[in-house]
Amino acid sequence: MEIVAVRVLLVDDDPEDLTIIRKLLTRARGLDIELVTASSYEEAIAELDRSTFDLHLIDFVLGEKNGLDLVRWIRAKDPDVPVILLTNMDRPEQDLEALREGASDYLPKHRLSTAELQRAIHHARERSAGVRRLRVSEERYALAVEGANDGIWDWNLDTNEVHFSSRWWALLGVEDPPANPGTIEVWTDRVHSADQEDLRRALTEHIEGLAPHVECEFRMRHEDGEDHWMLARGVGVRGEGGSIRRMAGSLSDVSERRYAQERLISHVSHELRTPLTAIYQFMTNLVDGLAGACNDTQIQLIDAALRNVGELDTMINGLVEATRARTDQFALDRQRLVPQELIDEVCSSHVSVAETSGLTLTSVPHTSVASVYGDPTRLRQVLVNLVGNAIKFVPPGGTIQLQARIDERDPGRVRFDVTDDGPGIPIVHQRRIFERLAQIEDAGARSRKGLGLGLYISKEIVARHGGRIWVESRVGKGSTFSFTVPLYDLNTLVAPSVIESRRRQRGLALIDVVLSAPPGAGSQRVDPVELRQLRSIAERSVVGSTDSVVPRRSEGPSDGVVVVASTDVRGAEIILERLQRQLADTFDPDLNRISWTVSEVEPSSLAACDEVEAVERLVAELERDMVPVTA
Amino acid sequence: MSDNKKILVVDDDQDLLMGLGMRLRASGYDVVTASDSYTAVATARKESPDLMILDLGLPAGEGFLVMERMQTISDLSNLPVIVLSARDPIGNRDKSHRLGARAYFKKPANNTDLLEAIEDALSATPV
Known about the structure:
Chain A contains 19 helices and 25 strands. With 631 residues, chain A is of the alpha/beta class. In chain A, strand 17 and strand 18 (413-420) form a beta hairpin.
């Protein structure tokens, strides 16, 4: 057995006990003990000042002071060193006190034997070493976390509780964060609507074992009013049965890198256009005979060059669009649209191209599809992208079919389908084709040119409309690309509040509601309870009056502003004018897209309703009184 | 003194001036060129062109500067301008229209479309 040298300080005010214990210690095996004794608190302190000890044996009772005071003194100097308290069997509560004060162990005096002492000493030393290692490790970890400056999140999937570090909140500009634990919704509610799907997918894929860890970039709402790009990384702990019950990771702000990247791409794309234009100019001048007539072969060659110039132009445009798609300059000009007209239009403009590739392109007629609310240029872009892909990948003799009808699973939306009987897409690829720079390495592809951004841009467009885009396909069985767009529905356009919370799931149009009170009205003409009630349910509502500063418009693009006057129509008009002027002064691009209305509502009619009913009644009255105020 | 209409092309890219100049001459126009804002305005005053084709991408934002300066010079305030730009239309298109541009083309501009716009601008009555 290995002999360990140990310097021991024994403190006991009873000289008989001192002698007994000393004798017991000499017989302890495996220990080469150098013993120093003290018979009072003061003597012990004197010895401790003089030198350090590997182990302390302290009697609980030490004259006026007790052993715990000494433990405290020792612990203040060294949190880990072994300290064993010798306690009295008549006072079992001493044992617990000893541990609480930080003793490594306690030993009832009456049971003292060499074996006990030996065991206690070995045990205390092991424990101290372990505790010290743990503390060093924790300090190292804490320092690393602080050095990395990341926020930390810790998610218990069973209870859905999430702990967020204060740094996590600080990254979002929140200085006074809500207490832990929160829920995962506390996090996802702050995530930009177009990115929520990405984050959810990253979390789910790791939980399902499809990805080795979580890694995702997305925008989050910062207290400064801007969206910041954040990177979340994390990993889960698998319990019995292999499923993940707990996940934790970091959050960091990558806005600078992200925006710098987008600015760079944007700048480079612009620069590329200049030489491209020169090439275009020279080639067209040549082929049009401005430098002398060309023979047929020369014309052929130059035409081929010009086709590639066209490809480059498309690519640059695509690159710029894809960059913009993520930075909200990607504005939508939404209107009431008839889906059938849209697909017929895309069909007829592509029929001849399809024919050239030996394909049949048709649209399925539906007579009674309701209108949708969308940007015609952008939705056409999505359809053209899907049809264009089909034309590229379906071999001659195939068919492509367009269709639009109400989505059976979600009657609030219209579903557009582009179906082909081409080679189909392997499931392995299906996951990735909507991502940037995804390209299918398929030997059958007629032309692999292009940057592969079309589907990515289409996904952004559809997400901005509040819809979904997906593909159903099997190898050898063809493919159907589908996307959904919300129906055009006046009710949902106009009712802001309850719809606001549903909007996050259904992606409906967004409205600002300005409740206006007559000047100096206060409690007189409009019941503040009613105003508060409405305000609490209309998250995006602000209250203004003619004699107060016009409130700042809430952030983010909106599709319309509805001004609701409680009793004072003229006051509402004044506020409306102010808002318009405010927007005009800041060259707000929304100015031309917003429809303005003023409406009069009897507040008493809202009293004694529950929230949902109140809003519905508001909506009904607004529909009845919509009076467009033209600028 | 020719009967042809005269077009002043302003662009800091010499290749572009050569290529577009060739195309315009072949379409029956006389062409004079400039590659910076100062020369552009000076040449416009001296040569009295019937139309200006202006590259917005002149260095240091000089593209818009040319249009702004022209508006303050009575001889030039009615000179029709067609704008070419390698940058995205967002913002630029509106600003150009506000400064009086007749048309806005993203580079590379299709020859047929550009020539059509030139004809329209030349035959339109002054604003």
